[in-house]
Structure formats: structure tokens, C-alpha cells
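**Reference record**
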Amino acid sequence: MTFRHIGGFLVTTKLTKDILIQYAELREEVKDTRRKIESLENQIKKMEEGAVIDCVKGGAGGIQNYKVTGFPYPKYSRAKSLFYARKAILETLKFDCSILNMVFGSTAGFLPLVE
């Protein structure tokens, strides 16, 4: 078996079916994470465009209707946090793909790159 030093680790350079399956799954995970990030971006843009309006009952015996307008800070904060977390996950996945390309790119010559 052949080995190569990558980032202080001793890694096998033997390309196997399992490694190709893992690489394909990793690429799918990258695509899925990108879709989730795009969806979150759209949700955040919608939140930033306008205020949220809600009707509540209260007042004299709970029979009066009040219209409450405001910005959804808790929802916005959760969406932004999730957005940054997914961006970090995407960078990690892309790094993993680049490591696989670095290790097996010369032996396989056909591993597609992840952008």
C-alpha cells in the first residue's frame, strides 16, 4: 500500500470504491448545504425588507383587537446564526473535498473539483 504525508498525517493513496462513494456523498452534502444557505439568505432578506404585523386581543375583557408591528429579532437572530454556522460547515466540506483531490487527484485524474 502507498502512503503520503498530508498535513502531518500519513494517508493512503490507494483509491478504492469506498473512497469514491464517500467523495460522491461529500459532494452531495456540499450541494445540499449550499441549497440550505441560499434558502436562509432568502428568508433573511425577506425579514430585513419589512416589519411583521400581528393582531392580538386584549383590553376591556379581551374583546378589543390591537395591531402590533415590529421586527422579528429572535427569528432573525436564529436565522443569522444558522446561516453563519452553515457557511462554516460548507467551508469544512469544501476543505475535505480539496484534501481528497490532493491525495487522489494524481492517482485518479478524474475526481471533479468542488467550487
About this structure: Helices lie at 17-49, 73-108. The chain has a mean pLDDT of 81. The first helix runs from residue 17 to 49. The two ends are 30 Å apart (CA to CA).
